[in-house]
Specification:
Number of helices: 20
Mean pLDDT: 84
Structural class: mainly alpha
Largest sheet: 3 strands, mixed
Strand order of the largest sheet: 1-2-3
Number of strands: 3
Helix content: over 70%
Distance between the termini: 89 Å
Radius of gyration: 27 Å
Order of helices and strands: HHHHHHHHHHHHHHHHHHHEEHE
Low-confidence stretches: 1-22
């Protein structure tokens, strides 16, 4: 039996009946959602009581593990072992939260969720081997286990970079669990062998398959010509809009740009296993990237005030992407995939084009390279690359769940492609996370310096703080006062006390005249 064959009864059922069918597994999903909401809300709203929040949250996680263990006992005998191991995950995570609850120097939520994910990933890998094959969900369980294991390892090994992302992802998935369970109930054959979440593929008719294929493939000569003309116009608009710091022009270029077409073609080709179509879309995409780069570099090289223009907000904002940009791209990619499978939401296409920002980062990369700033050029191209891979990942996931592609492609091919895309996305997201961490640290140090300055400068009032510049943990302070300022070591110590680590401080003093 395949995953597609393991479909639930088609008769209409109400919410109460669906929950009754789900039994203990459904109760565990609701409990997970409530626990996630309560823990995350309390963590945000009670910043002075986070130790108590973690202790209560850890205890709730242990109770959740007991509920999941009960659900595991209701499975068929071969499936109980992996399911009981899966139930041990929230227990392990809850114990970890309680142990580190009073240690503010540890990324506590990331540690707890990381432990949970690692144990859960191991359990689902075991389940894929023990019970996944006979029910036809072996590759689903394998992919789920690998994703959990990698996510947990990343949260544990690099919590300062990806801890927040891991917590947010797990929280959102847990909250969405009961909703998904109601809208797409787990087939009975699957529900008997695992407590893991399962999203079954929908069935897509031949007509719908052909419609999508016609929309994203078959790039004839005239269609390619139209694509390059529109893309060239978009590149011109975007480049001049960036140089003139015109938000309206940049938004207009996003709407005109047709880059989503070859990206959707690449995504559909990968999902369906049509290698030639995927390669053709990739070639068209590469040609489009080269065209945009050439146009932006030519305009940048001939701009009269290029060094001045490169410092405006529209360009600088696209040279240091963060994880927030990745989140936007994933959401926009999911909407792009939804637009492909649902023609009745085609009005959302302009919104997707504006949100995902493909051509402006390329143009930013081109003009900054022409202006002799390779670091900014790399940052802008990284933003484009992250957007591109995120669209492929999220859009491909929507197409898979919608039932697009041949049933025979649903195994090793999709698992291999998914693993490659996830690995590339992970590599690209690392510098994004590092940039976000640096931005947070710099803002923290800046606020600490401004706050500490008030008490430090009290003996020499009136005094004015003219500027605070932060580069990593190096702080430069510029002040103006009539009297000589106190020793800078006192200000440095005050800043270090607030940020909780050593900083290097340089104080510059401008002597003012008393009036």
């Amino acid at each position: 039996m395949t995953a597609a064959d393991a479909s639930p009864d088609a008769s209409p059922r109400g919410t109460r009946e669906l929950l009754r069918e789900a039994g203990a597994t459904g109760a565990a999903e609701v409990a997970r959602a409530l626990m996630a909401v309560a823990l995350l809300v309390a963590w945000v709203l009670l910043p002075d009581r986070q130790t108590a929040v973690l202790v209560v949250g850890g205890a709730a996680a242990v109770a959740l593990g007991a509920l999941e263990a009960y659900a595991a006992t209701r499975l068929v005998p071969p499936a109980r072992g992996p399911a009981l191991l899966r139930a041990a995950a929230p227990v392990a995570g809850g114990v970890a939260l309680v142990v580190v609850a009073d240690d503010p120097d540890v990324y506590r939520l990331a540690l707890g969720f990381g432990v949970l994910l690692v144990v859960r990933g191991v359990a689902d890998l075991v389940a894929a081997r023990v019970v996944g094959g006979p029910v036809g969900i072996g590759f689903w369980m394998l992919g789920l286990g690998l994703a959990e294991l990698v996510g947990g390892a990343v949260a544990l090994l690099s919590p300062e970079l990806f801890g927040q992302a891991a917590v947010a992802a797990v929280g959102l998935v847990w909250i969405a669990g009961p909703v998904v369970a109601l809208l797409a109930p787990t087939p009975a054959a699957v529900r008997r062998v695992t407590t893991a979440p399962y999203l079954r593929r929908s069935r897509m008719g031949d007509d719908e398959h052909r419609r999508i294929e016609d929309e994203v493939s078959g790039m004839g000569r005239s269609r390619v010509a139209r694509f390059l003309i529109l893309l060239s116009a978009s590149a011109v608009i975007a480049t001049f809009g960036l140089l003139s710091d015109s938000v309206a022009a940049v938004i207009g270029a996003m709407i005109v740009a047709p880059l989503m077409l070859p990206i959707q073609g690449l995504t559909a080709g990968l999902v369906a296993g049509r290698h030639r179509d995927a390669a053709a879309s990739a070639a068209l995409l590469a040609a489009g990237i080269g065209t945009v780069y050439l146009i932006s570099m030519v305009i940048g090289a001939t701009a009269l005030d290029l060094p001045f223009d490169l410092g405006n907000a529209s360009i600088v904002a696209r040279t240091s992407p963060t994880l927030a940009d990745l989140g936007i791209a994933l959401a926009a990619g999911a909407v792009g995939g939804f637009v492909l499978v649902r023609t009745d939401v085609a009005a959302s296409v302009p919104g997707v084009a504006i949100a995902v920002s493909l051509v402006p980062p390329l143009c930013t990369s081109g003009v900054t390279l022409a202006g002799g700033d390779p670091d900014a050029a790399r940052g802008a191209f990284l933003l484009f690359a992250v957007n591109l891979v995120a669209i492929v990942a999220a859009g491909g996931g929507v197409l898979i769940l919608a039932g697009y592609g041949a049933a025979g492609v649903a195994g090793r091919w999709l698992l291999a492609v998914g693993a490659i895309v996830a690995a590339v996305l992970g590599l690209l997201s690392t510098p994004l996370a590092a940039t976000e961490r640096d931005n947070i640290n710099e803002r923290t140090v800046t606020v600490a310096a401004e706050s500490a300055f008030v008490d430090w400068a009290e003996p020499i009032q009136p005094a004015r703080l003219l500027a605070v510049e932060v580069d990593g943990w190096n702080v430069s302070v510029l002040l103006a006062s009539a009297d000589k300022p106190p020793p800078s070591a006192d200000l440095e110590a005050a800043i270090e006390e607030q940020v909780g680590r050593d900083v290097t401080l340089e104080v510059s003093w401008v002597q003012a005249t008393r009036t």
